[in-house]
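Narrative summary of target 7.
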Amino acid sequence: MKKRLMIFVAVIAVAVVAVGGWLFYRRSQTTNAGSNADSVTTASTSLQTDSDLSGDHDVLVVYFSRTEGVWNGPLEIGNTARVANFIQEATNADTYEIIPEEDYPTDYEETTERAQEEQDEDARPAIKGDLPDVTGYEYIFIGAPVWWGEYPMIVRTFLDVEANDLQDKTLIPFTTHEGSGLGNTQSQLESQFPNATVLDGFSVRGSNAADAQDDVTDWLEDIGVTN
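Modeled conformation, tokenized:
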């Protein structure tokens, strides 16, 4: 009887050890699996961070904008300037405003007439002050109101002067308009800068520009240019 009791106790002890070992093994496997999952998440997050734009030395927003001589003016802030500001806030970009050496008319009709004359003459109106050094930037937004289906000729001045340094950049058009959309601004950049990467542009009616921040943010996410 005593011998049977000893055998029974031994069997119970072996079973307890076996169950304990199995539980320890399962716990260690679960812990390792959790650690591996955390590593994958961290690696993915790190990769996303590395691909984000840091701002100051990566992105430049170049724009031409007006507060007078516009369809819904005069304005406190120009329509294109508003969009440029939204882009700057979302990307931490540097900005450069194209300012004409000779002011455009304050009357809308007179402005459209002058814009047509400049286009007919293939003019390159002078820009006031120094132009930016674009060599240190990878992404360059180029924005303006659409005049007669394309960039104002003063923007063409900027593009021509900076042509050599823009050839290997990523160029991104954005426009304000009253029915023209992007006009031919995107195809113009693609034609003038065949070695550059031209991303899909953004356009908004000038009268809606003040309320376009969410649309700008969505667009920037779509093209992969965010801070």
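Residues 40 and 142 are 38 Å apart (CA to CA).
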